[in-house]
Specification:
alpha+beta; four-stranded antiparallel β-sheet; 7 helices; 39% helix; globular
Length: 250
């Protein structure tokens, strides 16, 4: 089995006062009141936490690559106010959960750079616990940690596809910069020698693959000076005109 993904999750903490109030007001059973409490008071927190930590967890997963394990294909660090029950649980289908004590309110008060650092430390804390429990070699994980710190926590990468201009003078590719609050997508144009001659941000999106991946369908030239990014459904495109941009920089 291969470990192919690492992520953080914010565990639901039931608010007994809210649940009692919902039960009294709606006349429902505890299970239904708990569901409503989660939907009203926790679901948004969980989504925000996942979104704001994804830039680092996705960065780590990409740099780490595939790691062979006996029983784990995804490691989920569950962030909880207090550890309860068994700290590490591995399911038969390869999902491994590990609990880490965590203060959500304190995390949300941090600036974006501090959130990146805190996210990486939370992830490493969970990895170390699981690695010790499962006798994993920590070297690949520690190496990935060092790479992220050395990169100053900047998660940016080139999308796999590039395109040559019709006259073969330039090459265009997509650069993604994954931040805490957003992901920025740029069209980059370079000359034959690899020198960057144009950089244009074409859009910003929510910082999660579920949102931004749909925009990455195809990059192509429509003339020697015009490049478009076309989404996967081929019904939306973002055009960059080199001549207009470069003339405006003069």
């Amino acid at each position: 089995m291969r470990l192919i993904e690492l992520d953080l999750d914010l565990d639901y903490v039931a608010n007994e006062e809210n649940i009692a109030l919902i039960m009294k007001k709606s006349g429902c059973e505890r299970n239904e009141a708990t569901r409503q409490d989660y939907e009203i008071n926790w679901k948004g927190k969980r989504r925000d936490f996942s979104s704001q930590t994804r830039c680092m967890t996705a960065f780590f997963s990409r740099l780490l690559g595939d790691i062979n394990t006996e029983d784990c294909k995804k490691l989920l660090v569950r962030c909880v106010p207090e550890i309860y029950g068994k700290k590490i649980i591995t399911t038969s289908d390869g999902f491994c959960d590990v609990q880490i004590q965590f203060d959500y309110d304190s995390f949300m008060l941090l600036d974006n750079f501090a959130k990146k650092k805190a996210t990486l430390e939370l992830l490493m804390k969970g990895i170390r616990l699981v690695a010790e429990d499962k006798n994993w070699d920590m070297k690949p994980f520690e190496s990935t940690y060092v790479k992220i710190v050395s990169a100053r926590y900047i998660n940016e990468w080139t999308w796999q596809k590039s395109a040559k201009s019709p006259n073969n003078k330039n090459v265009a590719h997509i650069l993604l910069q994954h931040e805490v609050s957003e992901i920025n997508i740029f069209i980059i144009v370079s000359d034959k020698s690899g020198n960057e001659i144009l950089r244009k941000k074409v859009m910003s999106e929510l910082p999660d693959e579920w949102y931004y991946a749909r925009h990455l369908g195809e990059i192509k030239w429509v003339s020697n000076s015009e490049i478009v990014l076309v989404d996967k459904k081929k019904d939306t495109e973002w055009l960059v005109n080199m001549e207009d941009i470069l003339s405006g920089q003069e």
